[in-house]
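Handoff note, outgoing to incoming analyst
You'll be picking up this chain. Sequence as last confirmed:
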Amino acid sequence: MADTSSGPVAVILTALQVEYDAVSARLEGLTRSSEKGTVFERGRLPGTPWTVVLAQTGPGNDNAALVTQHAYDLYRPRVLLFVGVAGGLKDDVRIGDVVIGERIYDYREKQSARGDHYRPRGWEAPWRLVQHVQRMTFGPDVAGRVRVAPIASGNVVLDRETSELGEVLRGNYDDAVAIEMESAGVCRAAHLIGGLDTLTIRGISDKADGGKGRADAGGSQEIAAWCAAAVAVRILASLAPVQETPTLPDAGSVGGAPGVGSASQELLGASAAGTDESGPPEEGKPPTVPPPRRRRTLLSRARLRRRAQPSNRSRTTLMACGAVALVGVLVAVLLKATADAGPPDGNSALKSCKVSQARVKLHVAASIDLSKSLSDAARAYGARQSLDGTCVQIEVSSVNSGTAMRALRQGWPEDDGPRPDVWSPAGSEWIDLARTPATSAAPQLLPESEPQSIVTSPLTIAMPRPMAQTMGWPEATIGWSDLAKWAEDPTHFWAEHGNKQWGALKLGKTNPDYSTSGLNATIGAFYAKTGTTGELSIRDVDSSANQAFVRNIEKSVVHYGDTTLTFLANLRAADDKGGREEVLKYISAVTVEESAVVAYNKGYPCGAYSYARGCEQRGKPKTPLVSFYPKDSDPASDHPYVQLRGIGTAKQKVSDDFLTYLHSTDAYRKYFAPYGYRTYKGEVLAHTGIDQDHGARKTPQTKGYDAPDGKVLYRLQQVWASLRRRANVLVVIDTSKSMDDKVPGTGRTKMELLRDAESALFDGFAKTDRVGLWEFSNAANLGGKHHYLPLVDIGPMGEKLTDHHGLTRKDALKGEVTGLVPNGATGLYGTVEAAVDTMRKDYDPAAINAIVLLTDGRNEGVPPTPNLENVLARIGTPDKRVRVFTVAYGSKADQQDVNGRSVLEEIAAATGAHAYDAKDPKILSEVLTSVISNF
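Most recent structure output, in case you need it:
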């Protein structure tokens, strides 16, 4: 049954549901029918005359071939597009790039008595058209990089860096950029039908290197499918049907290459056919698609099915299908239309320029959780010409919101790195805090106008799903007042709810001096106590009753941190180690943004798309998190885009244009939606994963609030220092001989740089915190008994010490660090075990009991030395938990890996702590500030 609807007909096929969803979301008026077992949906491509028929083939070339024939029999389309995802085969291919098939290889092997071998063959588009497309500039109209290149297609997926199939592909199809499982079937069927113009469009969803499972679980298929669909519909939209079409040569006669479909010949006219000596078609001239012509079906479905089965002859798909011809002309027209009519949503209004030509950089300092997404977006956006012709490139750096705020207060000193042109903290509260106190230099840098958001994410109280279900999720709601009540008796909380095996109530919360989620949680707690959503006052913050309420919540905190990455990474480590039971032992609830919950459940172990080691996407957790939205006040992270003053006209224009690009639907869906962020307007778009399946709710019922001003926030941070859970910490420093090594580019040793960082190591503690200090190397250099030597006993920081000439413990600690002398080897394992034993003997159940371990090496086996596995087992027992926060210091630190993790990462993970990286000694102060923020 041929389709008789008005307007030209195009068929779009996909293999997977995620691909199908990405295409169907761009169509309107869809109606469904089932024709001889295949489900088709027919709708319109908005703003065009096209009727689009959509169907899903399922995986595999054979299925794809059968559905291609079926779709042609029913609808006689002018164009057939296959849209889907693929694995990347080249190092320069990134997730989200789009590959259009110039040539399709079928890599199925020939089986013979000599064994399996391959006979590479391929059909190509005419050389003239390939040359034309290679000269085209695709421009900013499509998010991500689009290339025309060969694609390998077979019935086996490559997902290992080293394999027999990988060797075959490298040896016989080394120009293939992507690998997938359906295009060979589609294009074989199209070739046998004859004259059916077919184009394969594939978004890259993994690197075919063993990481497919992690990538898919982390949402990469959604990204790739959405990008491929965007390219497909824009190509289709640019085709304008005409009423009459001249008679053209038979299919296969163009340029001597068989299989080039008639529609693509008619699009290119005489130029494509080789009869016009003037060269390729003129850019900007509207291409046309001919009216439908009756075509004879060359094969019955039975014959097609037989030919699609493997035979004793090698298989190579013959793919030209007019793909390169079609893309070359269509992109030219699309770019011309964009220049004439102005940029559509998501496009740049500025001309692109080569990165190599960029003489000016626009520096963007972004919060840690958003920096990688912004970096990817900046790469896709590329370098841009401002109105005066200056070529500007965007460079994104990752800076903790609190750290950047403090740098701005001081006018951004050189020691803090290049001053940014744009600042994007996780929340607008940091802007007000930067303007406070009165001595701040930030007002001269910050604009007076209120900045726009890049994306948004509400704050949640996240719990492992079994615990949340015990508390009535998803129907129930909880708030800060509930947390305060629960914290009155955290030890017996779960026993009272019928789950004694879960132990005490344990809350995870970040430090409000550095983290937006921690700051918002503290604000929310004060609002909950005041019972109002009106603006918080200094009097409210200073109220003893309100402070007691907040202090009660803090009592249940297992430890703090500068970012939520620490908690979620530890949660995932527990999930990987022992599943549900280990997760429930680690933490009961953690205050994090909704985006972190969604990203964590998608397989991002740190709850964010992050550069940090160990944060790479992987499979979904066995025990997911779910979100409670605080019913008594629900702050949100609004990720403002703050353009600093004095950046100049050229940077200003590019900065404005970049923000417009970030607000586009395509940029949002590609760079932010996969990681759980809402739009800059706070909206939830379809197919973004912000739903109950990923632990979130589209429309949480919560109470809003008015953000406090800068003076109130400043006072709140001051007060919090006295409300937080106190710390009981032993600092253990490596003094082996390697600490005397010079650090390149500084002229100073690692030990000298450590001495300079002693303020970052000790100034973050309050007078009531208990802190002590050990050094360690090996027994022969430390008196012959132990590999470690106690220097300052653990006690209150404000206490005066008679054995240190009446100095306070804080001053004594700093003095001892100043006097450290490197010598000897590194008795690491024995020192760690002894330090944990010492802390357990001096355990304070009302405090955060922890060790800060700094080392520039690894265990060197100096006797006596225990076995690492035994050490990990002993320090990792949940009874009297002592968390060991490790710092790898110097380029040679911690080089031995154990089961994919370094030794220091293993030590930290075994104790529910976090491993920090200071392998660049020049950033030691910054790293130590992050470490101490846990207390």
